[in-house]
Structures are given as C-alpha cells and as structure tokens.
Amino acid sequence: MSLPEILNKLFAHIDGNHNKYIETLAEAVSIKSISAHPKHRDECQRMIDWTQYKLETLGIVCEQVNIGMQSLPDNSTLKLPNVLLGVTKNFDPKKKTVVVYGHLDVQPAEYSDGWETEPFKLTLRDGKLYGRGASDDKGPIIAWMNAIEAYHNIGTELPINLKFVLEAMEESGSLGLNKMLISRKDWFDDVDYICITDTAWLGNEQPCISHGLRGLSYFRIEVECASKDLHSGVFGGVIHEALTDLIHLMSQLVDCNGKILIPGIYDDVEPITPNENEIYEKITFDVDAFHKSLGTPGKLLYDTKIALLQHRWRFPCLSLHGIEGAFHESGQKTVIPKKVIGKFSIRTVPNQSTEKIEKLVVDYINQKFKEWGSPNKMKCFMSHGAKPFNENPFHENYLAATKAIKHVYNLEPDIIRGGSTVPVTLYFQEVSGRNVLLLPLGCSDDGAHSQNEKINLRNFFDGSKVLASYIYEVSQIE
Amino acid sequence: MSLPEILNKLFAHIDGNHNKYIETLAEAVSIKSISAHPKHRDECQRMIDWTQYKLETLGIVCEQVNIGMQSLPDNSTLKLPNVLLGVTKNFDPKKKTVVVYGHLDVQPAEYSDGWETEPFKLTLRDGKLYGRGASDDKGPIIAWMNAIEAYHNIGTELPINLKFVLEAMEESGSLGLNKMLISRKDWFDDVDYICITDTAWLGNEQPCISHGLRGLSYFRIEVECASKDLHSGVFGGVIHEALTDLIHLMSQLVDCNGKILIPGIYDDVEPITPNENEIYEKITFDVDAFHKSLGTPGKLLYDTKIALLQHRWRFPCLSLHGIEGAFHESGQKTVIPKKVIGKFSIRTVPNQSTEKIEKLVVDYINQKFKEWGSPNKMKCFMSHGAKPFNENPFHENYLAATKAIKHVYNLEPDIIRGGSTVPVTLYFQEVSGRNVLLLPLGCSDDGAHSQNEKINLRNFFDGSKVLASYIYEVSQIE
C-alpha cells in the first residue's frame, strides 16, 4: 500500500522536528502536576494553563471548566483543577468530529524512590525519554499537538474537527469529571468518535488497539466481636473471634486454581465465539517473558498464550486484597481485633451485570456465615462497582486507527483488550453514545506508575505520525 | 481469728500515713518512665535512681546492674536502664528470705489518648488514684516500701530478709533481665521464696492469688507469589495469589467454636482432676458482667463460670492476629500482594511442650499446603515460644499469702490462674528453683495498659497491709 501524499509530507515534517518535540515534553514533565498531593494542586492547574496556551497557538479554542471542590480526609476542602475543553477554530459541521481525551496529572515520584534520573527532568538515555508523565499521559497529549502542528506547517487545514477533554485528576479517580461531562452532554451532539490515548501496548514491539476493559466490583466483609481490641492471653478461648470468622468467609471465595466459588458467578460471561481463539492466536505475546517479568516462583495458572490472555481480559477473576483492623505490622502482637474488614474484588466482563454480581456475592457470604454459625455481627457489601468496557473493534473508528498504524509501522496492529478498569472509557461511552477507541502510543514496559517511567523516542515520534494518520483516515470515512 | 498484736500495730501505722503514701506515689507517677520510647530512657533510669534512694532510706542495700545495650529498629543502640538489686541490711541467715520482683517502667500514655486527667499527674477522684503506673506497677512497689517503713516506725526489726529485683524494661519485653539473672544465679542461693506483685485480681472485690499462666507459641506463615506487588486488573486471573493461599491455610487452624483443628494439639493437656471443678466453683466471677465488659454482640463460647475460667486459664486456645504485607489501610486498593505473612498464636498450658506444639503446627500447615496444591513458596515457623507457668498453690509460700490476705480482708482469697504469659515468672522459677507467688494488689478494672489507669485507695492501703502481713506470715513458717 503506497502512502497518501499528504501523509508523506506530514511524516517528513514530524521527522524534521524531533528536538522541538522533546523540548516541549521536557517543559511538560518539569511541571509537578501530582494530583494525589494537595501541595501540588497549583502545579496541576499550572499544567492545565500551560496546555491551554499550547493548544491556543495551534488554533484550538479553549475553555476551562470549574468542577468544584475536593473533600480531603481531614475534612478540609481543596479546589479541583479545572477541566480543559477545546474545539478547533472554524468548526466545520461537514467534517467528522473526534473527541480526544487525555490527562495532564501524574503519579507521585521522587528521586529517592529509586529513580535513576530526576523524575521531573526529562532525560534522554539509549533512545528513551525518562521522566514522570513521559508516557502516562503527557507524551501522548504532546503527540496530538505535534500532529496538529504538522498539518499547519505543511499548509493544510485539519481535515476533521477535534475537540479536547483534558483533565488533571485522572490519577486520583477523575474526581468531578463524570458529573461535568453529564452536565455538558449536548457538547457531544456534533461528535462522531471518541479517541483515548491513555493505555499501553501489550508488549514493546507490536502496536495495539484496545477495545475492552474489565469492570470492577469491590467488596467489604465487616465482622465485629467486641467493643475494644482484646488481649489474646486474657480473653483467648472464650469468645468467637471476628478474625476467625472473616478468614473463614474469605477462604470460601476462590479455590487454589483461581476458580471463583460463588454459584452463578460465571453464568453471564460471554461464551467464547467460534473464531475468537483465532483472534488471540494472532496477538504477539511471549508467555515465557511474561512469566519471567512477574517473578512468580512456580507455575502460572495457565501456560498457553490464548488461555493467559483470555483470563487477563475476557474472564472474571477474584483477588483478595487484605484486611483492615487486624495486626499488620512487622513483629508480633497478641491481639484479638475487635473489628476486621476483609477486602476483595472481582474483575467483571461482558455480560456480567454489576447489580447481579453484588447480589450473588452478598447472598453467598450471608449464606456461608449462617452455615458457619458465629453469633458475631457480619456485614458484606459492595463498596464500588464499575462496569466492564467493551467496544466494537470492527467499527469505522477502529478501522481508521488500524489503517493509521499500518501507514506508520507497516503492519497490522493487534486488537487487544485490557484486564484493568478505566472508568473514563465508560463515562465517554455513556455520555456520548459514540464509539470509544483506546489508541495507546507507549510500550508495556514504560513503567507508567513505577520508577523510571519513560517513553521510547520511537513511540513518541511514530505515535505523533499515527495520530496525524488517524486524523487523515477519519476524514476518509464515508 | 484474732489479729496478732504486731499486725494491729502495723495496720494502725499504715492507716495513719495515707497522705504520705499518696505523695510518694505521686512522685513516682510524675517520672515518665516509658520504656517503649527511646526519648524517655533517661526517665527510666531516673526512676531506678529514685527508687534506690527510697529503698536506701528504708535500710535496703542497693546495687545497680548494667545490663547492656538495646538494638533499635534503625540499627542504632541505646543503653538499657540498670536493674536495681537490693538486700535488707544486717542480712540474717537464720531468717527466711523473700525476693520481691516489680517493674518501674510504664506503658505509653498521653492526655490526648482519651485520658480524663493528666496521665503523669496523680489525681484523686472518687476514692481512686488516677495516673500511669498507679497500678502497674509503681503502686505495688510503693506498697512494699510502706510495709517496710511500718515495721521500722513501730520499732520492730523486719522478721525476714528481703531482696529486690526491680527493672525498668518490663513493658518492653524485660530486655536483658533473664541474662542478668542467670549470670547472678548464686544470688538466689540463700533465698526461700519469690513474690511477684505485678498482675491483677480477677474482679474488683475479691482478693486473689495466682499460681498459673499460659505459655505462648507464636507462628508465622509466609507465602510469596511474585517479585513485586501486582495490579489485580492487569494480572488477576493468571497467577496463584499468595493471599489466597495464606487465607486458606489460616482458615484450617480453628473452627467456629474455638476448637483447634491441628491433630494431637490437645493430647498433652492436663486432664481435669477429680476435685478441680470445685476449685473453680468457689471463685468469685460474674459471668454476665464479664460478658458485658467485652461488648461482644452475641453469645460467648461458654456460658458457665467454670467453663469460662477453665478456657481462659487451663485449656489452650488459638488466635489469628493478622496479616503483614497485604492491604491494611482504609479505602480500597486493587493489589495482588507479592508476599504475605500470617500471624497466629497458641496459648499453651501444662503439660504441652513448646517443641512438640511447634512440630505439630508446622507439620500440619505443610501438609495442608501440599493438599492445597499451590506452586508458591510457603514457610511456616514458630517465631517465639514461652512455656506455661504453673506453681503449687498449696505451698507454704502461698499459704502465707493466703493468711496475710485473711488478716486484712477477713476472707479467703480466690486461688486463680491467668491466661496471659508473663515471662519473668519462668525466669525466676528457673533461675532460683524456688516457689514463685503471684500476689496481685490491684483490681481487674485498673486499666493497666489503657487510658485512665488507676489504683483504688482501698487496694493501695490494704495492699500495703497485705504485704506487711505476708512478711509476718513468712516469718512464721517453720
């Protein structure tokens, strides 16, 4: 397939401006927009302001939306950073319109956490740009700027309308975003597609597009046996201990092979479709490298590529996370805790319903507690429920992205899913009713929430080309 | 039984000096001898010095023994407070000799913890002296001083020799004490009996003498599934999770009714002797008040006095304490912890052997893990083992204490045991080979390790009389 002439020009322009892109990313990385830290809240807002300035120079009309206050654990309140909305100037209703979502805040980072470079000073080493936010998610947002600027600089008008929703609270639960989106629902009336550039490839070589994520149902089991913590020497042997009850209940949830023991839990899981295994078979995934990266001392639950990917993406799983209220420090303490709270969650998949999962789990735990026979107070409930995200990967929005990737990498992207839960995918799906595309630019080893976060030069520059191509391919959709 | 003339005089003297005793206790309480806090270490040593001064004015020849350094968690070291040894002047080999043990350090306390008075300012309210250490264990030590002073002031020579072992690290594991006692083993050659005034009555009205304590075998189960904590969305569903394994193993230890499920664990428990239930029947113990004080929402494991006391004192029990390495905070986190450590302990009783208990538990957990079938790394071991303490309550030392209590309270003390583990009881039993008496002066509601610790005026003054009587009764032993 020969490259359309316009893409040749755009790619040549992008290839001639590497240093400028790096400088822009360095500026963005230097702003410590850590949303988790109240003391960095000004930096979050500064990052919004900086981005507004950059977008405006590219012909994007911007608006900052005040989304209210955050309640802190100490009962004080703190203003949330504004959400930045943007629309390309000279909005043309005859063109297709894409909403771009990204986030400008970052995870906490300190040199002393084990970074090899200063986290807020972008550093080039061996073809990789190290710095907090380089991959998650400042780099991809700057790749959008690069793509738009390339159109301007080759003297071509953008062939589609772009709208932006950029927030600075994503790493802290996207506080306030969904409410704002709902209140601005009509802003999506003239939108055709959504594009989210905020996840990563499955591996480090093969470009990917993602069309599904698992949901999350988070549960608490609370058991109470006394009005105060008790000394196990003085009182051990005469009371039904809350932790004994809780450990029993938590032991009834999943077996050694990861099978969830709650009756009916698998009933609504989408059956494997006739040609589904072929899709997985085509995906680039190295089982041995994956196993090695986890550092698990023994076998994994599955040893084939298809089974591993399906159980990470399209089958539910249950993980026990821990217990609040029990002794958790190092050393030893002889306590009978008065009240303990077990935490576990189920990753849900289509077509499981959050409401049904909640009922199945709570009924099961209540039944098990009845059979156990303890007279203690017990309560099981779902503290958080987010639905799975699933999108049609054969939709024209996905096909445009597939073509865009082929133009740049000269190969078909893997159509993947993800196992984790990104609530914004659902927010956009529900508020807009449009197809939502997850178009990741970075690699799985970018270390998004870890030390030494980086984006490869290749992914940054070729990612800018992918977005320029995607803009072109969307414009070609009939 | 009419009171011997000497006791009449001693009691009259004690009754005439209440204010002086309160002043002395106030001085002692004002010294913040918190052994857990390195910053208060000087105060611990000051408490030793203060006590030496007081004992010397009472004719006790004192010696401070350097017991070396403490290693702190940050790898620094800190000098331990000296142990104070004392011997009555003009030691007479023809008289009986009693070693008195007590401790001069206290638990941490802050007004902001929920105290109603300043914890280090002794405060009299409603017949109770509030202050940290008032009952545990400064009050009882000052009661000894009061008893000795009473003998002096009525012009009578002490009819027995007294030796003192007073430490200031009891609340921090009696660091260095046992080693020192062993190195001074010959110091016990001329000793007849040991008397420890450092526990409490079973209730708040009935005086008690205690002759038994349970032992403690503390276990850890460590399970490891990965080289780093994993995101449950990204990795849930494909690995054997360490916490699933651990919760399963911990669920195999004890049933809902407190029965330990480890085969053989009860084999060596001393059978109930023919007249044992009668002993328990005589003890003053209010089942309803006990139940209410715990604040348990449902039934206790037993509902009769005999069963409750026996299961607190003379039967073993197993308590789960908590898990290290899992998520323990409030809120929610979707983590698969890489390594988790379960903690539980068994309170042991005569004639259980610590070595056999360790083998039974470790073999059982290893077997259960094999049956479970997880490929993860698992290790179960005993991190701490202390034997149960048991003493002959019909020994002349106990009979002397019984008579002493009758002189003061005009009733028979209850001969009780305790459920917790006080290692110094075993240290003295083993190093001296002598009968060890636990002679508590305070009430069960004194709040030894809680907010608003107190000693009742009655217990403080009558306790001083009990000790004066005990000195007399020991002198009468043939």
How would you characterize the overall build of this protein?
- The structure is a homodimer of 478-residue chains.
- Chain A folds into 2 domains: 5-212 and 388-475, Aminopeptidase (3-Layer(aba) Sandwich), CATH 3.40.630.10; 215-270 and 314-386, Alpha-Beta Plaits (2-Layer Sandwich).
- In chain A, the strands form 7 sheets. In chain A, strands 1-4-8-5-9-20 form a 6-stranded mixed beta sheet, sandwiched between helices. A 4-stranded antiparallel beta sheet of chain A has the order 14-16-12-17. The first copy, chain A, has a 3-stranded antiparallel beta sheet with strand order 6-7-21.
- Chain A contains 14 helices and 21 strands.
- In chain A, strand 2 (69-71) and strand 3 form a beta hairpin.
- Chain A has helices spanning 5-15, 18-30, 41-57, 138-153, 177-183, 232-235, 242-251, 276-282, 287-294, 305-313, 354-372, 396-409, 423-432, 457-475; strands spanning 60-65, 69-71, 77-79, 83-88, 97-103, 123-125, 128-130, 161-167, 193-196, 208-210, 212-213, 215-224, 230-231, 317-324, 335-336, 339-348, 377-386, 389-390, 414-416, 435-438, 454-456.
- The interface between A and B is large, with 81 and 81 residues.
